[in-house]
From TrEMBL:
The keyword Acetylation does not apply. SUPFAM superfamilies: MFS general substrate transporter. Residues 12-398 form the Major facilitator superfamily (MFS) profile domain. It comes from Paenibacillus methanolicus. GO terms for biological process: xenobiotic detoxification by transmembrane export across the plasma membrane. GO terms for molecular function: xenobiotic transmembrane transporter activity. The keyword Chloroplast does not apply. The chain crosses the membrane at residues 12-33, 45-66, 78-97, 103-124, 136-155, 161-186, 216-240, 252-270, 282-303, 309-333, 345-365, 371-392. Pfam families: MFS_1 (PF07690). This is Bcr/CflA family efflux transporter.
Length: 416
């Protein structure tokens, strides 16, 4: 019986990871081709990075739409429609006539890919809770982070045999495959009786409840701010590694993939720690590691350090993200069962919206300076720690005070 349950859990994790991985594939697969795309459109690095920003905005803002749609119409139908939109946007990117069209289509591609991210988390919340959910999210994170390991290499391989446009044709083919998976393998996890009903005002009201939940917003901000640091890395390292240190596209892909491996290591550490250590302690370990590692990144780039030093420090930062991600998502969504889609949307939107802010900042000093990258990624750790103590810890202290007050009332009542 346990073996069958384990097999079902692994199968579900693999399916959901495939959709969760669509976001990283959409972002990462074209990174090694950024210099070639810049030449093809006869534009500059800022405009090319704007295409990344547009994709990140789409991935973030799209979740605000896809989350409530999945709460109202179920998980399966919105996922299928989004995959069809993704196919069209991917093919459109390959044949974009100008950089402006390319940027607009990247926005649309991001919106479509957001469904995989938000709905995969919502399905996980539909089926699991508590420690079981933490372990499942950690497993889902581990599997889905195979995408950063292979997507840059896949993009480099496709571009070496065709062109940068071939990368987007490949993403369109991936969309076709996921449409088939959604049709045949994804079962509806939200019965009609549990779906949210009502008008647009009800959707807005649900978001209002989430934004007023101090603990939820604290965990969501911790997660989102740290992922803004990840996106700063995504935007900055193609130029830092290749233009400043002379790494080839293949070499860059290998170095970039190390961070996917690091996130997987962090997620596996969570699976081992949860149940033995409190989730509060685990997230504090992750925040401490992020602060130390990003401090090392900033010091290294200011001092003009070597490529291996930067790679080592960012690897540790990625480990901290792998630790914090599953725990913060679980704790944020723990009490949001009926509106899991909307809660998942807020989590994802913060990640990509903050990433859209951080990614252009790394190029402020041009293509041959890593100092803005160091400042941005260090700042994300500082802000994540501040969000945790300002929101999560205050909410925990307030709960403790209420529990203590309730205990005193019960004791007095007993005395009477």
């Amino acid at each position: 019986m346990n073996d069958k349950r384990t097999d079902r859990t692994l199968r579900l994790a693999l399916i959901l990871a495939a959709f969760a991985a669509l976001g990283p594939f959409t972002v990462d697969m074209y990174l090694a081709s950024l210099p070639q795309i810049m030449d093809a459109f006869d534009t500059n690095a800022s405009m090319i990075q704007a295409s990344l920003t547009a994709c990140l905005l789409g991935l973030g803002l799209g979740q605000l739409v896809m989350g409530p749609l999945s709460d109202r119409y179920g998980r399966r139908t919105p996922l299928l429609i989004a995959m069809l939109l993704y196919i069209a946007a991917s093919v459109g990117c390959a044949f974009a006539p100008a950089i402006e069209w390319f940027i607009a289509l990247r926005l649309l591609q991001g919106i479509a890919a957001s469904a995989g991210l938000v709905i995969s988390r919502a399905i996980a919340r539909d089926r699991y809770s508590g420690v079981a959910m933490t372990k499942f999210i950690a497993l889902l994170t581990t599997i889905s982070n195979v995408a950063p390991l292979i997507s840059p290499n896949a993009g480099s391989a496709v571009a070496s045999y065709s062109s940068w446009a071939g990368v987007f044709i490949s993403l369109g083919l991936l969309g076709i495959l996921l449409t088939a998976v959604a049709s045949w393998c994804v079962e509806e996890s939200l019965p009609a009786a549990r779906r949210v009903t009502g008008s647009l005002s009800a959707v807005v009201s649900n978001y209002g409840l989430l934004f007023r939940d101090r603990a939820f917003m604290g965990y969501a901000l911790v997660n989102g701010i740290l992922f803004a640091g990840v996106f700063a890395f995504v935007a900055g390292t193609p130029f830092i590694y290749q233009n400043m240190f002379g790494a080839s596209p293949q070499h860059f892909s290998i170095l970039f993939a190390l961070n996917g491996l690091a996130i997987m290591i962090g997620s596996q550490l969570v699976k081992r720690m949860v149940g033995k250590l409190t989730e509060r302690f685990i997230i504090q370990v992750g925040l401490s590691l992020s602060l130390v590692s990003t401090s090392a990144i900033l010091i290294t780039v200011v001092a003009g350090g070597s490529l291996p030093a930067i790679v080592a420090a960012t690897f540790l930062f990625a480990v901290s993200v792998g630790i914090i991600g599953p725990v913060s998502v679980t704790l944020a969504m723990a009490s949001q069962g009926r509106i899991a889609g909307s809660a998942s949307a807020v989590l994802g939107t913060l990640q990509y919206a903050l990433g859209a802010v951080s990614s252009p900042l790394v190029g402020m000093a041009g293509e041959r300076s890593a100092i803005p990258f160091g400042i941005v990624i260090f700042t994300t750790s500082i802000l994540a720690v501040a969000a945790y103590f300002a929101l999560v810890r205050k909410a925990e202290y307030a709960d403790d005070d209420r529990n203590d007050a309730g205990s005193q009332i019960r004791n007095v009542s007993g005395g009477i």
